[in-house]
């Protein structure tokens, strides 16, 4: 038999669709030239011909016909008598071409070639996968949840490649079910036991940046630039944007009419509050905008120490600090300044408190509104009243009041 069908004999050929044909042909050629060197000592007088479309392979040996008794190199020359046994019309000085039956190599050699081929294809597939995702780092992709484990999620992309979403890269409120599609950004490509491992992330700032790019055409077109993003995943994010076109309001474009553009992103990020601010090189103005939604009265900036003392009215202090200090922490990261919050005109650091609006994920809105109706707009203003006073002044049930106090007290106990 002078040829062999690669698709039948080398099953791994079927799994190599993502490897380009020239590379595939080179691998096949290298594998069989190795066989030739082992059997004949050299592959110089052999041509390995691969038909990539049909999967056929032929090995052709060519030697120069010389007078009998004048064969100096058996690999490159053949005697006249031996040549005419193959074809009677041959003459001295002509080239003799003959096909090599692959089964002449022996069953063991063919099996070894098959294993070598499979190994080389496997390595190529790994390299192709690694290179593919290395060029996609920072891109957002959608993949199907295949397996949910305690420390990570296994996802499958459209080509059947395995992707990993570690617990540390998941939003705390994330919940995954097998078979559903989820979106994430490609964070990095690791090598584990010489195998590429694609790591995804839903907590990276790049994930929010790509979501904004999808929802806001002006960002995609380059008319609006995202200068910086800081996040406390699932809790709050701050995005500084700048427009290169004076006719475009960057904040309004990102938020959309009645929040139409930002709402989809907020849902994707499990109700993460997103503050979009207009970037400026004026540090004082940038700090003022970064502390949104609080309104600043005045501030003192130490440029050398990268520190700023911010003064606010008492009812704005809790807004500036935010729940668990998230708002002020993100503002510091966004501006690059260490921020100290003080009551206006007193110069004394404000006792830690939290605006009731920050608890909207645990306390129903109507309950918060009822508490605000009696003048309680911060956590401590509620805790400073007894259960009896709250029951008497509001329309809340005793059980509701107790649950509210438990949620609010837990915030300060954690401190």
Q: Given the structure, what is the number of helices?
A: 15
Look at the structure and give the mean pLDDT. 83
CATH architecture designation of the domain at 3-132: 2-Layer Sandwich
Helix content: 25-40%
What shape does the CA trace take? elongated
How would you sum up the major sheet? 5 strands, mixed
**Named CATH topology of the domain at 3-132:** N Utilization Substance Protein A, Chain:P, domain 4
- Rg result: 36 Å
Function: Participates in both transcription termination and antitermination.
Protein name: Transcription termination/antitermination protein NusA
InterPro entries: KH_dom, KH_dom-like_a/b, KH_NusA_2nd, KH_sf_prok-type, NA-bd_OB-fold, NusA_N_sf, TF_NusA, TF_NusA_bacterial
Pfam family, one: KH_NusA_1st
Tell me briefly what this model is:
The chain is α+β, with helices and mostly antiparallel strands. The chain is 37% helix and 26% strand. It has helices at 6-9, 21-40, 80-86, 107-134, 205-215, 217-220, 250-255, 260-268, 283-290, 314-321, 326-335, 365-373, 379-383, 387-393, 398-413, and strands spanning 3-5, 46-51, 56-66, 77-79, 95-99, 140-148, 152-156, 162-166, 181-192, 195-201, 224-232, 236-243, 273-278, 296-302, 307-312, 338-343.
């Amino acid at each position: 038999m002078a040829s062999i069908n690669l698709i039948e004999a080398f099953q791994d050929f079927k799994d190599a669709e993502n490897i380009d044909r020239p590379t595939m042909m080179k691998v096949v050629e290298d594998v069989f030239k190795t066989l030739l060197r082992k059997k004949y000592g050299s592959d110089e007088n052999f041509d390995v011909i691969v038909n990539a479309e049909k999967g056929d392979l032929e090995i052709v040996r060519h030697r120069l016909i010389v007078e009998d008794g004048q064969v100096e190199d058996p690999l490159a020359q053949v005697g006249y008598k031996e040549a005419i046994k193959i074809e009677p019309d041959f003459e001295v000085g002509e080239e003799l071409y003959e096909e090599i039956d692959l089964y002449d190599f022996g069953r063991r050699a063919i099996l070894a070639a098959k294993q070598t081929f499979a190994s080389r294809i496997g390595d190529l597939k790994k390299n192709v996968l690694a290179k593919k995702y290395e060029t996609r780092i920072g891109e957002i992709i959608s993949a199907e949840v295949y397996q949910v484990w305690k420390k990570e999620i296994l996802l499958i992309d459209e080509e059947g490649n395995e992707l990993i979403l570690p617990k540390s890269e998941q939003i705390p409120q994330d919940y995954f079910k097998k078979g559903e599609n989820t979106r994430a950004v490609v964070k990095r490509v690791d090598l584990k036991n010489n195998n590429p491992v694609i790591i995804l992330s839903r907590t990276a700032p790049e994930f929010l940046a790509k979501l904004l790019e999808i929802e806001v055409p002006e960002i995609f077109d380059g008319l609006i630039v995202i200068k910086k993003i800081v996040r406390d995943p699932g809790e709050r994010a701050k995005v500084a944007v700048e427009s290169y076109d004076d006719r475009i309001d960057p904040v309004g474009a990102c938020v959309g009419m009645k929040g139409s553009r930002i709402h989809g992103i907020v849902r994707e990020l499990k109700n993460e509050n997103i503050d979009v601010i207009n970037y400026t090189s004026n540090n004082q103005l940038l700090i003022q905008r970064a502390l949104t939604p609080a309104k600043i009265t005045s501030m003192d900036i130490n440029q050398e120490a990268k520190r700023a003392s911010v003064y606010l009215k008492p009812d704005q202090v809790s807004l500036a600090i935010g729940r668990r200090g998230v708002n002020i922490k993100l503002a510091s990261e966004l501006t690059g300044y260490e921020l100290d919050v003080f009551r206006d005109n007193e110069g004394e650091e404000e006792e830690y408190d939290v605006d009731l609006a920050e608890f909207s994920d645990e306390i129903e809105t109507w309950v918060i509104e009822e508490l605000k109706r009696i003048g309680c707009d911060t956590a401590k203003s509620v805790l400073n009243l007894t259960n009896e006073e709250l029951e008497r002044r509001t329309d809340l049930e005793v059980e509701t009041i107790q649950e509210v106090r438990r949620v609010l007290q837990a915030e300060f106990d954690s401190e």
